[in-house]
Amino acid sequence: MSLHTYFFKHSCSLRDDPDCLSIIKRYGAEGYGIALILIEYLGNRPGNKAPLKSVSSLAKMYSFKTIVAKNIIEKYDLFQNEDEGESFFSPYLREQMIEREQFRKWGKEGGRKSAEIRQRNLERKGGLTQASREGQPLEKKENDSKEEERKGEKLIPPSLEKVIDYFLENGYERSAAIKFFEAYNWAEKKDTKGNVIKDWKKKAQKIWFTDDHKIKNKQSPGSGIRIHQGFKPSN
Questions:
Q1: Nearest to residue 73, comparing CAs of 220, 65, 205, 120?
Q2: Where are the beta strands (DSSP E) in 70-136?
Q3: pTM: predicted TM-score of the whole model, two decimal places
C-alpha cells in the first residue's frame, strides 16, 4: 500500500471548529481525542466510512467509553450517519480526502509531463549523435538554436515608451510603435513565429520601418515635437 494512503490534510485549528469546541466543552480534552481517533480510523477505511458497531472495538482498543464516542458521532456535525444509521462518516474528512486526491493527480500529471520532457531530450540527443555519424548538419542546427536562445536571454524587453521614442526618432508613427510592441511575446522574447528576438531594434527596422508607417509630412530629424505620454517640451 502506498505511503500517501496513511496521510490526509489536518487543520492546525481544528480544535477551534464550533463542533470541536462543543465536544471539548462537554467532554474535555478526552472527547476531542476520541473525535480524532474516530477521524483517523475512518481515514483508513474504504469509502472513509465504518460500521457504527465497530466503535465498541475501538473503545476497548484505545481505552475510552463507547457511549461517549457514540454521543459524539450522533450529536455533533463532525460526524454523520448513513446506510440507515448502520454506518458513520466524517464530512470534514471526506473534504480533506477529495483535496488530497486532487493534489495527488496534479503531482502525477506533473511527473508524467516531466518524464515526457526528459524523454524528448534524450531522443533529441540520440538523434544528434546519429546525425553526426551520418554527416548530417543537424548538430549545427541544434547549436544555432541554442545560440539563439542564449542571445534571447540577454535581450532586455523594451518598455512601450522606449519603443515609441525609437519609432518617432526614426520618423515612424506612434501607432506603428504600439502595434510592434503588442505583436510579440516579450515575456518569452519571441516573435510571432516562435523565433527568439535577438535585437528588438533590428526587428523593428526589418519588419516595421516601412513607407506605410512613416510619419506624414515629417520634419527634419530633431526639429519636430514628439507627442507621447510623459513628454515635456524643453524651453
A1: 65
A2: 80-82, 87-89
A3: 0.43
Position 8 scores a pLDDT of 59
Question: What 8-state DSSP symbol labels residue 5?
Answer: G
What band does 137 get if pLDDT is binned at 50, 70 and 90? low
- Which of 156, 163, 159 lies closest to 177 in space, CA to CA? 163
User: How does strand 87-89 pair with strand 49-51?
Assistant: antiparallel
Nearest Cα residue to 69 out of 95, 15, 33: 33
Average of per-residue pLDDT across 7-34: 85
DSSP state for residue 23 in the 8-state scheme: H
- How far is residue 44's CA from residue 10's CA, in Å, rounded to a whole number? 14
* Residue 82: strand, helix, or coil: strand
**CA separation, residue 228 to residues 19, 88, 163, 176, 189 (Å):** 63, 70, 11, 13, 25
